[in-house]
Structure formats: structure tokens, C-alpha cells
Specification:
- This protein is 23% helix and 11% strand.
- The radius of gyration is 30 Å and the shape is elongated.
- It has 206 residues and is α+β, with helices and mostly antiparallel strands.
- The strands form four sheets. The chain has a two-stranded antiparallel ribbon. A two-stranded antiparallel sheet has the order 3-4. The chain has a two-stranded antiparallel sheet with strand order 5-6.
- It starts with 53 loop residues before the first strand and ends in a 9-residue tail after the last helix.
Length: 206
């Protein structure tokens, strides 16, 4: 009589998933590479840092892995230090409408998430402020409050047929067309002539 014994072996495979967050880092002790500020991956999941070494088209240095920035839309890649210096200069000089990919033939206009990765918090805040101001100045239906005592608010004209404006912030009433104090039924030209001939002075500025 022959007895056959079957042995069953069960193998359990455990898969461990490691999530790695890539950051751009700043180092100053490696003259052959250039890097930018610490950043984290954007909320939309796009990781713009370079995954392999490359030569920066601006400074021609070899850039280490994790030290460059690759634009998602156009694919051009530059070192973090060159982009930081370039964009900081543009923002400081108020040229926020000229912030594009540095490639000469590229028309990609940098978005908020690009700037957020590249410059520091103080410069990012300045970028947001200048961008807002540029948008207001470019909109024909928006005006800054001209209150001579100082206000700084901006708002849109609700009725395009009316030049009578009243600031929501300080209550100052002015003419949307000539930006002088509201002058009722007088035309803007008549009001200007009246100010000149009457030696009109706004005592609120003193």
C-alpha cells in the first residue's frame, strides 16, 4: 500500500508603496550646479523638477537631478537659480505681464503655480499685487478711487451709461470719465474750466 502526501505552500507577497515628494533644494557649495528655493509638488499633482541631469540653456551649467524646473505646457527646462533671478527681476520692476518661458521662441505665459514654485513668498505676494493692479488698469470699466486724501480701492462701474461713481470703501463721489469730483450736470470740460477760473482748491489734501 502506497500513501501519497501532498503539501501545499502558500506564498504571500507584500507590496510596499513609497510616495516620494521631490523638492528643489538650495546649495551654494557646488559651483557646477545651481538650485532654487525649497518647494513642494503643486496641488494638481504636477511635479516640475527635473528627473535627470541637463545643461541649463541660460547659464550652461550642468544641473543636478531635482535642481531644475520643467514647464508643464511647453516642456522647456531651466535651472532653478536662473529662473529665480530672472523672474525676481521682472516682478521687482512691475513687468508681471512679461513673465513667460525664457525660451526665445516660446510664447507660454507663466501661471501662478509656476511663479509659486520659483520665487519666495515675499516676491510671490508682490507678483499677485502687481498682477491684480495690471488687470485693473487694463479693464476700461474699472477705476481706482481718486479720493485726494488717499483710498487705494478699485471697483467696476455697474452702469455703463452713468459717470456718477461712489467709492464703496470711502464714499468719495467722482466722475468716471474725467476722474474729478462728481460735477453733476456740468460737462467734464465745463467743470475743468470752472476749476481754473475760480482758482478751486480741494482743502481735503491739506
Amino acid at each position: 500500500t502506497t500513501t501519497t502526501t501532498t503539501t501545499t505552500t502558500t506564498t504571500t507577497t507584500t507590496t510596499t508603496t513609497t510616495t516620494t515628494t521631490t523638492t528643489l533644494t538650495t546649495t551654494h557649495n557646488q559651483p557646477s550646479t545651481k538650485n532654487a528655493q525649497n518647494v513642494t509638488i503643486s496641488q494638481d499633482g504636477y511635479d516640475p523638477v527635473n528627473k535627470e541631469k541637463f545643461d541649463c540653456p541660460i547659464c550652461f551649467d550642468e544641473i543636478d537631478i531635482g535642481s531644475g524646473y520643467r514647464f508643464e505646457k511647453c516642456g522647456h527646462t531651466y535651472c532653478g537659480e536662473c529662473l529665480t533671478g530672472y523672474y525676481t527681476d521682472l516682478i521687482t520692476n512691475g513687468k508681471v505681464l512679461e513673465i513667460t518661458c525664457p525660451s526665445p521662441n516660446c510664447t507660454y505665459e507663466c501661471q501662478y503655480h509656476d511663479i509659486q514654485f520659483i520665487v519666495d513668498k515675499a516676491m510671490l505676494d508682490k507678483y499677485v499685487e502687481f498682477k491684480r493692479n495690471a488687470a485693473i488698469n487694463a479693464d476700461p470699466e474699472m477705476k481706482w478711487c481718486p479720493n485726494p486724501t488717499g483710498c487705494g480701492s478699485a471697483f467696476r462701474r455697474e452702469n455703463p451709461l452713468s459717470n456718477h461713481m461712489a467709492c464703496d470703501e470711502c464714499g468719495y463721489e467722482f466722475c468716471f470719465s474725467c476722474m474729478n469730483e462728481y460735477h453733476g450736470s456740468k460737462s467734464c470740460e465745463d467743470y475743468k474750466r470752472w476749476k481754473i477760473t475760480s482758482n478751486w482748491v480741494d482743502i481735503r489734501v491739506y
